[in-house]
Amino acid sequence: MERAKVNQGIDLSAYEDVWVLGEQREGKIQPVTIELMGEGRKLADQLQKKLAVVIPGYKIESEVEKLLHYGADIVYYMSHPLLSSFSTDGYTSAFVQLIQKKKPEIVLVGATSIGRDIGPRIAARLGTGLTADCTKLEIDAEDGKILQTRPAFGGNLMATIVCPKNRPQMSTVRPGVMEKAIHQETAAGTMETFIPDLSENDIRAKLVEIIKEEKKQVNLTDARIIVSGGRGLKSAEGFHLIQELADVLGAEVGSSRACVEAGWIDASHQVGQTGTTVRPDIYIACGISGAIQHLAGMNESKYIVAINKDPEAPIFGICDYGIVGDLNDVIPAMIAKLTQK
Ligand code: FAD
């Protein structure tokens, strides 16, 4: 793979605009794209620059066009048969070509499996830096650089990183952390189609078949209510009670890492620094102590309800409603009340 030398003494003024490298799967725009557009809009407004979103794909114009209703000034549609589904080589090469042509100042990528794969490759080819797994982005009022904050040392401190000399400034951003851009009836921006120079020989790994997992998909990122269980459940059976409450509320089931490590529940349910970051309307933490690594993934929830038998549990320090008691008494009482005719 070609790797650019780190840019030294480049003309920073040649770089404009805030970009989101968007994602589609099977022709459907992914929610992380709308979240990054929400954050990108704020950054672009502060810098008085344009917000652009780039989507790779093939024969999905009408889906891509919808992004004009989420506050984008420009939607770049990178259209090519070799971009119809994800490939590391195809996506990396296409994004690099367009970035080199248009020179954005800031590039945001989702910290998803796709973004974590291509983000560092794109940065390396452009000879710039990348801050991975950001949870907060701000513009420095003094010099207009982006301040990129991410957890460091196992989540024990938050590091703020700047990219002083190279452009674009690139970040991967955790899904579920940023507020989504709001849908608008009118579309003010423009759509441009870019056809990258790609050939079969550029792509070393071929997609043979997509096999969907049969198990129920857990969608913690989009859930409005999450009922989450911790070690206080004592066993895998404890999750039956959590599931029961979740069913009554139309909620998803979350978990602390302790339960995943104990083998009580699948890792796809884990909330936290090394699990999924969530921001539901209501997060109900049952038998979860409130370790910093768990809080890192859920403290942006609108309302946090905690059930814990220890009044000193740290979760009570951040919750909106706290119930001190045994979850085996509290949860059945909640279910009974909610299902009362
Ligand atoms: P505990 O801390 O053991 O808490 C159990 C709680 O249940 C206690 O507060 C207890 O009072 C209460 N309880 C017990 N019985 C009952 C009862 N009958 N009724 C009511 N309450 C009861 N953790 C995560 O969750 N997500 C992560 O992504 C994550 N990432 C990590 C990354 C790193 C690098 C490291 C080092 C750790 C990470 N952890 C993560 C682990 C984290 O530090 C904690 O160990 C974990 O969150 C604890 O889970 P817990 O709250 O379920 O268990």
UniProtKB/TrEMBL annotation:
InterPro entries: DHS-like_NAD/FAD-binding_dom, ETF_a/b_N, ETF_a/FixB, ETF_alpha_N, ETF_asu_C, ETF_asu_C_CS, Rossmann-like_a/b/a_fold. Its cofactor is FAD. Pfam families: ETF (PF01012), ETF_alpha (PF00766). Binds 1 FAD per dimer. It comes from the Bacteria. GO terms for molecular function: electron transfer activity; flavin adenine dinucleotide binding. One of its GO terms (biological process) is fatty acid beta-oxidation using acyl-CoA dehydrogenase. Residues 18-207 form the Electron transfer flavoprotein alpha/beta-subunit N-terminal domain. SMART domains: ETF. Keywords: Electron transport, FAD, Flavoprotein, Transport. FAD binds at residues 231, 256-257, 270-274, 287-294, 308. Belongs to the ETF alpha-subunit/FixB family. This is Electron transfer flavoprotein FAD-binding domain protein. It comes from Anaerostipes caccae (strain DSM 14662 / CCUG 47493 / JCM 13470 / NCIMB 13811 / L1-92). The gene is etfA.
